[in-house]
Amino acid sequence: MVIDSHMHLTRKANFDVETNTRMGLGIPEDTDIDQLVGWWKEAGIEKAVCMGQDMERIWKNNFGEEYVLECYQKYPDFFIPFASVEPVDAAGRFSREKLEHLKSRVKDYGFRGVLFTPPYGQYHSNDASMYPFYEFCEKEDVVVQYHHSAQTGPAVLAPTKYAQMQNLNDVMVDFPDMKIVVEHIGYPWSEYLFVLMTNHKKMYCDLAMTFGRPTWLAWNMVIAKEYGVLDRVMFASDFVGCEYDYFSANPAEDLKKWIHYVEVELNQICEGCGWPVFTEEELRGILHDNAARLYL
Fold first, then answer.
1. What class has domain 10-295?
2. What CA–CA distance (Å, rounded) separates 23 from 11?
């Protein structure tokens, strides 16, 4: 079985038409939740870590923050729910309102983590305004997940100065017991991320949106193995909507293709390049066991 460690539950109504049109960005259509769960189970996925994505401060989108709770309540054995908040308000000040929202999601509804997206919100992950969130998450054993990587698309959408890996180094120093997940293996600073993971044994990363660069991904998995952090790399889809980003009209087939990449094609690429190959245990770890150790 497989665990999808990062996907989004979205509603079209939670995307701002004016902003997205101006940016040249599409808006995904709604996905029927029963159909979605059926696709994931058809692909062999037993659980999915789900979230919205709060981008309201600048881009007026939140993907579907309330919808995550609705879907979790309908499928509590399938979804592992995360909140998504921006830690600062429109003026760039600490947002007590968002902190209280996170506390409620965790304490009242059993949410397991929180997503922060510094490049989209244009704030730094080591900013003082984030520390009250970190204090709560470390104390309550809440997983802190970051989009802490570059983003294809208009440069203004996610300026990379807000995604520099050294920002996370400060967070690790001040919150040594906080569980952290970095999406997209920190592209394009993946090796830097792997070094940070050697320093912080509770830091994980995921493979979301990396399967379109199969050789690059294979080489980075070789590097992760060399650094001894492969046991904290997790499979992820980053689903937002059908026929959106990497997804076709039939997401089950996309998921099967990416799972097959991990199970078979990864070693084929390594063998063809003369690189070290991966054991069945290591591949099973990427697909299931590493995420199970963090979440189950």
1. alpha beta
2. 19
Sorting pLDDT into bands at 50, 70 and 90, what band is 23? confident
Which tokens in the block code for residue 35?
Answer: 């159909």
Res 152: pLDDT? 81
Cα–Cα dist 47/28, whole Å = 23
Per-residue pLDDT tens for 154-203?
899 999 999 999 999 999 999 999 999 999 999 999 999 999 999 999 99
Inter-residue contact 129 to 94 (CB < 8 Å): yes
Residue 67: how many other CB atoms lie within 10 Å: 20
pTM of the model: 0.97
**Which of 65, 70, 94, 99 has its CA nearest to residue 82?**
65
Q: How far apart are CA 70 and CA 110, in angstroms?
A: 13
Alpha helices in 43-174 (DSSP H): 56-59, 65-74, 96-109, 118-121, 131-140, 165-174
Q: Can you spell out the DSSP letters for 45-78?
A: EEEEEEE---BHHHH-B-S-HHHHHHHHHH-TTT
